[in-house]
Write a structure and sequence with these properties.
With 141 residues, this protein is of the alpha/beta class. The chain has six helices and three strands; from the N terminus they run H-E-H-E-H-H-H-E-H. The chain has helices spanning 13-19, 36-43, 63-68, 70-76, 94-101, 125-135, and strands spanning 25-27, 54-62, 116-121.
Length: 141
């Protein structure tokens, strides 16, 4: 069971690198070419035991659109088959519990798409924070 993001210690430098599995390669982000299918294809050239040796990035996502628009989230980041419906810090927790028990789907799926860094652009720090809270359980940074 994953440790909640707020309870994980903040790692820096070598400790962070080791927490990612000490990747040997970095799959650099490309405009409109770093989606899940590209990351999966790139990792498919290595044996499964070495797929974690590639650190991958998502394309740059617009934080305000990501936090405000379900369709934007569903189109650009799909960690669960049902999508990211509610914000992790809102609601009564019932929908959050349903999401927690749902099996990983595409983006950030531990056996196929990790380590993964999700990138956001934002003008408002609150937009950035709220967007990051959606993806934090499904990525490494």
């Amino acid at each position: 069971m994953a440790v909640p993001p707020s309870k994980r210690p903040k790692l820096t430098g070598r400790a962070f690198y080791k927490s990612l599995g000490s990747p040997k390669y970095i799959l650099a982000p490309m405009v409109d070419q770093s989606e899940f299918a590209w990351r999966l294809l790139t990792r498919s050239f290595l044996p499964p035991s070495q797929s974690a040796s590639i650190l991958a990035y998502t394309p740059m996502l617009h934080a305000r659109l990501f936090k405000d628009t379900k369709n934007f989230r569903d189109r650009h980041f799909q960690p669960l088959r049902s999508g990211l419906h509610s914000h992790p810090s809102s609601g009564d927790g019932k929908e959050q519990q349903e999401q927690k028990v749902e099996a990983p789907y595409l983006d950030g799926n531990p056996p196929t798409d990790r380590p993964l860094i999700v990138q956001f652009c934002a003008n408002d720090p609150q937009d950035l924070l709220q967007a990051a809270q959606y993806v934090s359980p499904h990525c490494d940074a």
